[in-house]
Design brief:
This protein is of the alpha/beta class. It contains 17 helices and nine strands. The strands form three sheets. A four-stranded parallel beta sheet has the order 5-4-6-7, with helices on both faces. The chain has a three-stranded antiparallel beta sheet with strand order 1-2-3, with no helix packed on it. Strands 8-9 form a two-stranded antiparallel sheet.
Length: 331
């Protein structure tokens, strides 16, 4: 890694800033993956190697505030839907016809700690964000800063999803990216399943990621709300109420029944509504990332159209090995 890139993430007062970071990264285990950068094992999680400085910078610098809300997820688990819901619940005084989601991609409204805030700190200034600050992350629970986990009343909302559907959605996303970004390698579904099951994909292993937040939610349910994508699809109203209550902004009886606030939120954040907006059909989140890549089907059970019986059995065996006795559903 070039020293110029390293310096970008650290203040000059850090002891031996660029040398120490290069030394740390050089000693970490590495593996080939879907990106030309490969992945690096840091704190028992595989991260795309060029992202490690962002992660370390976040851990060293981020100071959580009591009102902060962190939306956490493994990639392709329903992140876009959840951040849209949370943003709309927090900003439910916005007039429907002037709602920010009509003209702005959800990921621009709710920036990612590792992909946005600590990738481009000159552009994202946390000190200027209004309270409560709403941010997102794909980092595992173990990688979150101590200020989030132990030293503040900040809250974490996590969403999980059936790993079989995650695989299919993630595979499509990667292959779409590969058409725009030559740093990403296109792959077959067979190769992707191999990588996913090995855990050597960005933010993997999947099973450890989910289990970490699940256990944290059991130990501290006032701190971590654990959601399941499938339950949100089945009972969106009930899950939206859970979310609002958890963040300290429960819906009033009037909002639920008479003035249409809840109905407007659910309609605005519905998959079809978001997917059909011009900003999400034509806009770009980053030069090599079209907004439309965040919206494919939003369904449950689509894995049956893509995965062979042997692939499914392989994933099921790992799920049983990793989650047996945890209380998480075994597929």
């Amino acid at each position: 890694m070039a020293k110029e890139a390293t310096k970008y993430f650290f203040n000059e007062e850090d002891n031996n800033g660029d040398e120490s970071l290069e030394s740390i990264i050089s000693q970490l285990p590495k593996a080939n993956s879907l990106s030309k950068y490969g992945v690096t094992l840091y704190q028992n999680c595989w991260f795309q190697s060029n992202m490690i400085p962002n992660i370390i910078s976040f851990q060293k610098q981020f100071k959580a505030e009591d009102e902060d809300i962190i939306v956490a997820s493994f990639p392709k688990s329903g992140t876009t839907w959840l951040i849209s819901l949370l943003f709309s619940i927090l900003n439910r005084n916005q007039h429907y016809d002037q709602h920010p989601l009509l003209s702005t991609n959800p990921h621009d409204l709710v920036p990612s700690l590792e992909y946005s805030i600590y990738s481009d700190p000159k552009f994202y200034d946390l000190s200027t964000m209004s309270s409560p600050r709403l941010v997102s992350t794909h980092m595992p629970y173990t990688s979150l800063s101590d200020s989030i986990k132990y030293h503040s009343k900040s809250r974490i909302v996590y969403i999980s999803r059936n790993p079989l559907d995650v695989i299919v959605s993630y595979w499509y996303f990667v292959n779409n990216l590969s058409e725009r970004n030559h740093d990403i390698n296109k792959c077959t579904i067979e190769d992707f399943v191999d990588i996913f099951c090995s855990g050597k994909n960005n933010f993997g292993p999947y099973w450890d990621h989910v289990l970490g937040f699940w256990r944290a939610s059991l130990e501290n349910p006032e701190k971590v709300l654990f959601l399941k994508y499938e339950e949100m699809k089945e009972d969106t109203i009930g899950q939206a109420k859970r979310i609002a209550k958890f963040i300290g902004l429960p819906f009033t009886q009037e909002e639920e029944n008479s003035n249409g606030v809840m109905d407007q939120i659910l309609e605005m954040c519905s998959f079809n509504k978001l997917k059909d907006l011009n900003v999400n059909k034509q806009g770009k989140f980053k030069p090599h990332l079209d907004n439309k890549f965040f919206f494919r089907k939003g369904e449950t059970g689509d894995w049956i159209n893509h995965l062979s019986p042997s692939m499914v059995e392989r994933v099921r065996k790992i799920t049983q090995q990793k989650w047996s006795g945890s209380g998480l559903p075994l597929i």
